[in-house]
Write a structure and sequence with these properties.
Blueprint: E1 3-4, E2 9-14, H1 16-21, H2 26-36, E3 44-47, E4 50-53, E5 70-74, E6 77-80, H3 81-84, E7 85-90, E8 96-100, E9 103-107, H4 118-133, H5 148-178, H6 181-204, H7 211-240, H8 245-269, H9 279-314, H10 320-328, H11 332-360, H12 362-380, E10 396-402, H13 409-426, E11 432-440, H14 445-449, E12 460-467, H15 474-488, E13 493-497, H16 501-506, E14 514-519, H17 523-537, E15 543-548, E16 554-561, H18 563-568, H19 573-585, E17 594-597, E18 602-609, H20 618-622, E19 625-626, E20 658-659, H21 660-663, E21 664-671, E22 676-678, E23 681-690, H22 695-709, E24 718-723, H23 724-754, H24 758-764, H25 767-780, H26 787-817, H27 822-832, H28 834-853, H29 859-910, H30 913-916
Parallel strand pairs: 2-18
Antiparallel strand pairs: 1-9, 2-7, 3-4, 5-6, 8-9, 8-11, 10-12, 10-13, 11-12, 14-23, 14-24, 15-23, 16-21, 17-18, 19-20, 22-23
């Protein structure tokens, strides 16, 4: 249903003084129109050889002919429609005006279903619009004003671009570390194959390509490198031992098959909590989790099949001649690689020396490391702030304008002109694309059911401003306008509305992230509490756009009918009401009638109504004629020749028509502008937004005010917090609880694999450092905790665990070879696994760098995710390379000493008593 425009309607404009002089009422005109203008078939008649279709002139062919319809005979003279009014081809009084850049327009919003593709719908609509343009008048233009497909395409392109950049950077990093284009090619091929496999599974599950699924794949790019990189690096290490190519491949694959499987499953397990989310977060993040999990599983399978196969044909066996040729080569890349290897080995040797120091002073190092991680995280966490989702600069904003309740729509249109001029003063003209004014409330209930603006009447308007591609931050303009508009237009309420898709979804259709509902039947008592609570909420730093949605000052006129006097005059309450309804609102609502346009075959409604400009004073209202509904023409009288003659009406044949003022008093007053129900109960909503601070800090202070306000509620009333605040609480609880649950699952998985309770504990001991790194990096980058940031934290937990598994699994093997020398095993594990751990972490970090910058449309949404992963992995890698081996050496060293003491004690006990002495 369109907004704005003038809907064609046949208007019967009543001349009330003429109607009164004839002793008629609006009801008489409605009756005449209904009985004289009908659309009915008459049937057929068989006359002679033909069967005739019988038709009558029931409906005039021209609107102007309706002026000639007779109403009734008064004092012997027939009264026609033209005598007491005028019929015109017009439109009803406008209650909704739409303007685009100051020009009158009609606005049509197309809303898609949940499973439909935005891109396909927009493509189809544009094709239909192109077809329609050729059939429209030359002076009528159809212009797409808001197209979400532009944002969707830009967002998808941004995510794809980030993924490509991440893949390229990762490939360069692998090339530098491995020093072989062959090894790099093997790893590079596995990435698109894993992504393609994930897309196939997502398609089979009915998922679409969107920001979240592509974000999951972009997130997975850095991890996908992990399996293939570790596999190729291990094969190369076996080749350096002098093994044949096939033997090196078999040994290299066998050595890491189980640890890699456990690491992959560990990463997948951490995403399990997302499947237990409820509401909107579930639909946002389950596709992301599915994309990552399916890509990881595909990556593991490819690393066990395709990677060894490609290695068989691309990698070469190591021999002395090849090494000599490599050292003698003057190829710039080979020389660069030699230099890199030289400095990397020096770097790795330095790492070994530092690790030796850590192991030698294990007690001090472990205590300092744990204290730093825990205390720094605890101190910085309160300064981060918490938001449900990061705000997105969609390149547009929307102000809702609310004049004094009951203001005429014409005056609101003038007000919007002044507001538009103010906006153009603040924003440079080259940054403005369009300004759309949507003023008033349309008749259709369809529009209001899908609207989240809170429009309740002609005194409301939405002003949406679309900005050019290169513009200053939208929030800066909004804050400047919010302050300037409130100064220039006192008495007018201004507040912003969500315009980007993410905010609209997360608000559940509400016009603000904060919604405090006061529920109860005592509306006026609840209103008083709401005003007190809102005034106190205005003192909370960071709150903005606070307002009570339901106004209680809508001006009204109560028609107080004196039933006794009306009854004495032959009138009833129904007579007064029907006369008022027809005169003020039109007859179509109670007595629908249509005129069929023979040129088009389209039926248009007919409305009998007094023109609004004729009822602009109280005196005019009181002069509306009122007559009894049983006022009818006299019975037909026989003529002298015996024929029935036309009946004539005389005012004396029934109760005379009265004016409204004779039977009723008009009393001005006020009433609620709208009454809102939620779950049947009447509610009063306090809406508010948050600026320059985080949502959680405002929520905590508002919750205290709400708790205090509950003590002042009338009996039977309650206060309920809704909106984004409530969803944020539930989502955070679900993610944090799920994170703890996933860590427990990962721990139990490693217990099953290692057949030990101790080693899995050592592995997950790297996680506190990861959490500390996440908090540090979010603090440094001024990023608040949000659902994307927590998602990145979950991802980081999995990667940190997988790297620690590689270290501990190798250390366990070395522990068996070194016959219980825990320090040597830990040192060897850290030294040997230094390259793959560093490569895995760097691949993930480099892969997250484009996402962390948050560039492109919607980039702000996934930026916290990338930053959380980078910060967590930086600290987790340090923990994996230093803390985990040191912790391993301490715990296994103690176990080994106890084992030796136990064996010595048992040997001593087994000796004869003489030998003991």
């Amino acid at each position: 249903y369109p907004y704005g425009g003038k809907q064609r309607q046949v208007q019967v404009d009543i001349n009330l003084p003429a109607l009164q002089s004839k002793g008629l009422t609006p009801a008489d005109i409605v009756t005449a129109m209904s009985s004289q203008n009908i659309i009915l078939p008459s049937g057929t008649a068989k006359i002679g050889p033909f069967e005739y279709q019988v038709e009558t002139n029931s409906a005039p062919a021209d609107v102007r002919e309706l002026n000639n319809l007779p109403i009734r005979s008064v004092n012997g003279a027939m009264v026609y429609i033209r005598d007491i009014g005028h019929v015109r081809d017009g439109f009803p009084p406008q209650t909704n005006i739409v303007r685009v850049d100051g020009q009158r327009a009609s606005l049509l919003s197309v809303i898609k279903t949940g499973d439909a593709s935005t891109l396909n719908i927009v493509k189809g609509l544009r094709a239909k619009i192109d077809q329609m343009k050729s059939q429209l008048p030359s002076n009528l233009r159809i212009t797409p004003l808001a197209d979400q497909s532009v944002f969707v395409r830009a967002s998808i392109s941004g995510v794809v671009r980030e993924a490509v950049i991440a893949a390229c950077l990762t490939a360069v990093m692998i090339l530098v570390f491995l020093g072989s284009w062959r090894s790099t090619l093997i790893v590079a091929v596995s990435i698109p194959l894993s992504i393609l496999s994930s897309l196939l599974v997502l398609s089979a599950l009915g998922e679409t390509i969107n920001i979240m699924t592509l974000g999951g794949l972009a997130l997975a790019v850095g991890i996908l490198v992990d399996d293939a990189t570790v596999e190729v690096e291990n094969i190369n290490r076996n080749l350096e031992m002098g093994k044949a190519i096939e033997q090196a491949i078999l040994d290299g694959a066998a050595q890491i098959a189980v640890p890699a499987l456990v690491a992959t499953i560990s990463i997948c397990i951490v995403f399990v909590p997302m499947f237990f989310l409820g509401g909107v977060p579930r639909y946002l993040f389950v596709p992301l989790a599915e994309a990552v999990v399916f890509a990881m599983l595909a990556s593991y399978l490819l690393s066990r099949t395709v990677v060894p196969t490609m290695a068989r044909y691309l990698l070469q066996e190591m021999d002395d001649e090849a090494e000599q040729r490599k050292h003698a080569s003057r190829n710039p890349f080979i020389r660069f690689q030699r230099g890199f290897e030289h400095y990397f080995e020096k770097f790795r040797s330095g790492y070994r020396r530092i690790l030796e120091l850590c192991i030698a002073h294990a007690g001090i190092f472990l205590i300092v490391f744990i204290v730093f991680a825990v205390i720094s995280a605890a101190l910085l966490f309160p300064f981060l702030g918490e938001d449900f989702f990061p705000s997105v600069d969609a390149g547009q904003f929307k102000f809702h304008v609310r004049a004094q309740t009951g203001t005429r729509i014409e005056d609101v249109a003038d007000l919007c002109d002044k507001v538009d001029n103010t906006i153009r003063e603040v924003i440079p003209q080259d940054e403005i694309v369009t300004i759309i004014d949507n003023i008033g409330l349309p008749y259709s209930g369809i529009n209001t059911s899908y609207s989240n603006s809170g429009t309740i009447g002609p005194g409301d308007a939405d002003i949406q401003v679309s900005l050019a591609e290169h513009h200053r931050p939208t929030d800066a303009y909004v804050q400047q306008l919010r302050h300037l508009l409130s100064q220039r237009f006192p008495g007018v309420t201004f507040y912003t509305l969500p315009v980007d898709m993410v905010s609209q979804i997360l608000n559940f259709g509400l016009p603000a992230p904060i919604d405090i509902q006061i529920v109860g039947r005592d509306m006026y008592g609840n209103r008083a509490v709401a005003e007190q609570l809102m005034n106190r909420m205005k003192q909370v730093p960071g709150t903005a756009d606070l307002r009570i949605q339901q106004p209680f000052n809508n001006p009204n006129l109560t028609i107080d009918v004196d039933r006794t006097k009306a009854s004495q005059l032959g009138l009833a309450q129904r007579d007064v009401t029907n006369s008022l309804l027809t005169a003020l609102s039109g007859s179509f609502q109670t007595s629908p009638n249509y005129w069929l346009d023979p040129a088009t075959g389209v039926s248009y409604s007919i409305a009998v109504q007094s023109p609004q400009y004729t009822l602009d004073t109280m005196h005019d209202l009181e002069n509306i004629p009122v007559t009894a509904s049983n006022m009818a023409p006299a019975s037909p009288a026989p003529s002298p020749n015996g024929m029935l003659t036309q009946a004539t009406y005389s005012p004396s044949s029934g109760p005379a028509a009265q004016i409204l003022g004779n039977v009723a008093a008009v009393i001005p007053g006020q009433e609620p502008g709208t009454i809102t129900h939620y779950n049947i109960a009447p509610v009063i909503d306090i809406y508010g937004s948050v600026v320059n601070t985080d949502l959680a800090s405002v929520d905590k202070q508002v919750e205290k005010l709400v708790a205090d306000a509950r003590h002042h509620l009338p009996g039977g009333s309650a206060i309920v917090v809704r909106g984004q605040v409530l969803t944020m609480r539930n989502s955070f609880e679900g993610l944090l609880g799920g994170l703890i649950f996933s860590v427990i699952l990962v721990y139990l998985l490693i217990v099953v694999n290692f057949q030990s309770w101790l080693d899995p504990f050592i592995i997950i001991s790297a996680l506190p450092a990861a959490i500390s790194g996440i908090i540090w990096f979010l603090f440094i980058t001024h990023t608040r905790i949000s659902v994307p940031a927590l998602t990145g934290a979950i991802m980081c937990m999995g990667v940190a665990t997988s790297n620690s598994i590689l270290i501990i699994s190798f250390a366990r093997e070395q522990l068996e070879e070194t016959v219980g020398d825990a320090q040597a095993a830990a040192l060897s594990a850290g030294y040997v696994r230094f390259r793959p751990v560093l490569m895995t972490a760097l691949a993930m970090i480099i892969g997250m760098v484009p996402m962390a910058f948050g560039l492109g449309e919607g980039g702000e949404q996934n930026a916290p995710l990338g930053r959380a992963v980078i910060g967590g992995l930086l600290f987790a890698t340090v923990s994996t390379l230093f803390f985990v081996p040191t912790f391993f050496s301490v715990l296994h060293g103690r176990l080994e000493r106890r084992r030796r003491e136990r064996e010595a004690h048992q040997k001593h006990a087994a000796l004869p008593e003489k030998q003991r002495s």
